[in-house]
Amino acid sequence: MIGRLLAALGALLLAACATVQPASEARLIERGPFAVEGLPDQRLSIWLPPGYDSSARRYPVLYMHDGHNLFDLANSNFNKIWAADQAMLEAMASGAVEPHIIVGIWAPGPDRYRQYLPAFATEEAEGALAQSITGYANGEVLSQRYLDWMADELRTQIDAEFRTQTGPSNTAIAGSSMGGINSCWAIAERPDVYGRAACVSSHWPLADPTLPPVEGDQARELWSAYFAANLGAPAGRRIWMDHGTATLDQYYAPYQASVGADFRAAGWVEGEDFRSEAYEGAEHEENAWAARLPEIFIWLLAGE
Q1: CA-wise closest residue to 213 among 119, 127, 116
Q2: Cα 295–78–252 angle (5° rounding)?
Q3: Does 190 fall in a domain?
Q4: Of 60, 59, 29, 62, which is closest to residue 43 (Cα–Cα)?
Q5: Secondary structure (3-state) at 109
Q6: For residue 176, what are the β-bridge partners?
Q7: Shortest CA distance to 296 belongs to which of 64, 117, 58, 103?
Q8: In b/e form, how buried is each residue of 94-112, taking b as 16+ CB within 10 angstroms?
Q9: CATH number for the domain including 168?
Q10: How far apart are CA 217 and CA 205, in angstroms?
Q11: Among 20, 38, 92, 139, which residue's beta carbon has the most beta carbons within 10 A?
């Protein structure tokens, strides 16, 4: 009798094990180039986390600029990448961050600056700063159209095609340099869409950082006026900003300090609503950003 019971139990256990499906591996999907009205052709690299293909789970979404430099050395500009997928896996392993879909939006080559530069800068800048912006842009600034496309059209497409969690608390945006200031601008402009932003090695000077101090003062004043009018209270949003101290990042400390003061003036609490970090010796390049990306993800994307 006991033998028959043990045999039956063993059969049940084997049957149960046979029905358990192993978690699927992560998957990278490449899209484009494809036409977008009012913008240069766009390309996407979409990373689906482990388990996406073997479950019915829904996932938060992280949109990242310079998508060609996120995952694959073969696509990168400088033969170095953020390794955003590995950073996400590390953040997930910490237990603080749930798996995210990452949508990498490629930069459009020579049109990168004019696609990322916040629109208000071209409307308000004067003198040498305005001339520098015009020279860098070398054409019409496209950032308002880019933001509209990302926040409305692309997001709608991603939500329709993939199993996403929606709403600002489940939608983040991140980038470096010009992509950093675009991310900070995006979360201020569209709090209805983005609830998290990583502004990494942000190019707060807007154009040439070696211009005379008066132009640096003007850039800081432009940001202060913009945030005073548009940032608003945190209302659950979270922003990470940082810089290194070498190469291009050597210019950023006074700008980031000014932006931090702007945030505090708007009621943001440092350490809770925003982080402002400096990395001694870190350069303005992908390997430096990759080194701190897990830390960024663990704080920025952690659940409530």
Answers
A1: 127
A2: 55
A3: yes
A4: 29
A5: helix
A6: 200
A7: 64
A8: eeebbbbbbbbbbbbeebb
A9: 3.40.50.1820
A10: 9
A11: 92
| pLDDT value for 12 | 39
What lies within 8 Å, CB to CB, of 229 at 6+ separation is: none
How many structural domains comprise the chain? 1
Whether 176 and 201 have beta carbons less than 8 Å apart is answered as yes
And the tokens for 243? 């810089």
Q: How far is CA 59 from CA 2, 66, 98, 156, 165, in A?
A: 47, 22, 8, 15, 5
Q: What 8-state DSSP symbol labels residue 152?
A: I
- Sequence-distant (≥ 6) Cβ neighbours of residue 72 within 8 angstroms: 28, 45, 81
The pTM (predicted TM-score) of the whole model is 0.92
Which tens digits make up the pLDDT trace of 255-271?
999 999 999 999 999 99
Mean of per-residue pLDDT scores for the chain: 94
- Domain of residue 101 covers 30-300
Residues 229-240 have pLDDT tens digits of 999 999 999 999
